[in-house]
């Protein structure tokens, strides 16, 4: 059943265009056979305009998601006739009406970012290796590690892509200093270049203030689109920053790609190591090699006197790696410069390569690069 309050629900006061104008343009893209349109079935959740790039988020009935997704390219072209709009992107969020029975998944799956499903073919055909950066729990510095490892691998002479698969909390675009929206060429998103690598994050496609209130199928659909709808080219390695835990995104990535391995990030204290064990166990159960553990926030180094303090203990990850018979990749200290680098958009390996943190990540990146090259020769 359509969202009948679409036409009467106004956009926010700071929205770039009137609701009636958006409705009129969406209504011009109709299915010729059924008359179905995004205007009749959708409900606006957000609308923003940034440097000529319009992002419109619509809530739609779940049972019509596949048919409405097919209308997005034509509707986007209509929206691009608005003054000041050069590129329009429509993102769909599917909801099941209250009390309605669950529907079987459609063959093409959910496509929350809109667009037409690409023709069947191998996923990531040009990518030589995919590495996951994972953690059993949040707050251990996994994304900071993923950014510095990816850039560090690039500094080792590898061609690197970086995918932000943390759908509910995308942040890599900010940590890399990326601005604006990615280009779309021949229906495929182009990853953005920064610090010698290419990267893609959902944070570049949505309003930063918008909450991603998506259930598992929508999350997995977004991950599939970030893998298959992005023109990743031919990198030597694609580094994937996973969300915390061992849930849908992890399983979707394992099912869709041939992972070369996983890097597990933990802090030294026991409560973090418990979850790190779960992450290692998950990858081992699905036969993905664990490339090693990293102990982040291993110690605090005073910027004034140089004295080190083990705020969260020390050496726990090394001991855990030995107990689980997986490699230990190294220790990274807790430094104010590392926190500042995430806010400034300049990775530590670039902005402060001779700092303790910069040297630690460069060493870990060198070890991983050597492993990748050895694996390629084997």
Automatic annotation (TrEMBL):
InterPro entries: FSCA_dom_sf, Mrp/NBP35_ATP-bd, NUBPL-like, P-loop_NTPase, YlxH/NBP35
Region: Disordered, residue numbers: 98-118
Residues engaged in binding ATP: 136-143
Keyword ATP-binding included in the entry's annotation: yes
An MF annotation (GO) of this entry: ATP-dependent FeS chaperone activity
Organism domain of life: Bacteria
A biological process from GO: iron-sulfur cluster assembly
The keyword Disulfide bond belongs to this UniProt entry's keyword annotation: no
Gene3D superfamilies, per database record: P-loop containing nucleotide triphosphate hydrolases
Biased composition (Low complexity): 98-109
Keywords (A to Z) from UniProt: ATP-binding, Hydrolase, Iron, Iron-sulfur, Metal-binding, Nucleotide-binding
Subunit record text: Homodimer.
Stated family: Belongs to the Mrp/NBP35 ATP-binding proteins family.
Function summary: Binds and transfers iron-sulfur (Fe-S) clusters to target apoproteins. Can hydrolyze ATP.
Name of this protein: Iron-sulfur cluster carrier protein
Organism: Acetobacter vaccinii
């Amino acid at each position: 059943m359509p969202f009948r309050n679409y036409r009467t629900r106004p956009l926010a006061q700071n929205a770039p265009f009137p609701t009636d104008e958006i409705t009129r343009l969406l209504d011009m893209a109709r299915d010729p056979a059924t008359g179905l349109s995004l205007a009749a079935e959708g409900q606006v959740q957000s609308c923003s305009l940034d440097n000529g790039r319009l992002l419109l988020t619509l809530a739609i009935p779940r049972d019509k998601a596949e048919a409405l997704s097919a209308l997005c390219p034509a509707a986007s072209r209509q929206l691009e006739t608005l003054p000041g709009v050069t590129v329009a992107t429509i993102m769909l969020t599917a909801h099941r009406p209250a009390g309605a029975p669950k529907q079987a998944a459609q063959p093409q799956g959910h496509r929350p970012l809109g667009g037409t499903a690409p023709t069947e073919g191998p996923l990531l055909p040009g990518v030589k290796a995919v590495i996951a950066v994972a953690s059993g729990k949040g707050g251990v510095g996994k994304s900071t590690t993923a950014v510095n490892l990816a850039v560090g691998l690039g500094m080792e002479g590898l061609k690197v892509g970086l995918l932000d698969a943390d759908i509910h909390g995308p942040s890599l675009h900010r940590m890399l200093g990326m601005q604006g929206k990615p280009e779309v060429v021949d229906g495929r998103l182009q990853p953005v270049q920064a610090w010698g690598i290419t990267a893609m994050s959902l944070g570049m496609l949505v309003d930063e203030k918008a909450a991603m209130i998506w259930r598992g199928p929508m999350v997995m659909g977004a991950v599939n689109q970030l893998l298959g709808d992005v023109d990743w080219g031919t990198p030597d390695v694609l580094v994937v920053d996973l969300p915390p835990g061992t849930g849908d995104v992890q399983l979707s990535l394992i099912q869709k790609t041939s992972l070369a391995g996983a890097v597990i990030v933990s802090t030294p204290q026991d409560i973090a190591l418990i979850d790190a064990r779960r992450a290692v166990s998950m990858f081992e159960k699905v036969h993905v090699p664990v490339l090693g553990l990293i102990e982040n926030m291993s110690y605090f180094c005073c910027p004034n006197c140089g004295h080190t303090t083990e705020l969260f203990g020390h050496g726990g990850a090394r001991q855990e790696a030995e107990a689980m018979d997986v490699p230990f990749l190294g220790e990274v200290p807790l430094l104010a410069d590392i926190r500042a680098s995430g806010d400034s958009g300049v990775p530590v390996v670039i902005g402060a390569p001779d700092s303790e943190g910069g040297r630690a990540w460069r060493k870990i990146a060198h070890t991983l690069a050597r492993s990748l090259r050895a694996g390629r020769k084997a």
